[in-house]
Design a protein that fits this description.
With 96 residues, this protein is an all-alpha fold. The radius of gyration is 16 Å and the shape is elongated. It is built from 3 helices and no strands. The longest helix is centred in the N-terminal third of the chain and has 33 residues, at 2-34. The protein has helices at 2-34, 42-54, 67-95. The protein starts with a helix and ends with a helix.
Length: 96
């Protein structure tokens, strides 16, 4: 039983870390967008591509007039969902 519990704890930790990384990438893109990072830069392009893929379901969900509000709401929603769901799953795994 102890071995199963240790594996479950490790799996829960991995899930929480992955959720944190996903939310970090989304938050980083929001910050880069708001600070008008150079889109020709390789790092900015990578973060934008990764964030676009992660928030593919939410980045055009809102139709605010201001582009910055659409970015913050759409990508921010995805980040919050990944954090909430990832940590909820991790906590559920840790309890079993």
């Amino acid at each position: 039983m102890s071995r199963y519990r240790n594996s479950a704890n490790q799996a829960g930790t991995v899930i929480a870390i992955v959720a944190d990384i996903m939310a970090f990438i989304l938050g980083l893109w929001i910050l880069m967008y708001l600070l008008e990072a150079n889109r020709a830069n390789s790092l900015v392009q990578f973060v934008h591509g990764a964030a676009g893929w992660l928030a593919g379901w939410s980045h055009d969900l809102f139709t605010f007039d201001e582009a910055w509000a659409r970015v913050v709401a759409g990508y921010g929603l995805a980040a919050v969902v990944y954090l909430f769901v990832g940590h909820a799953v991790a906590n559920r795994i840790h309890r079993h």
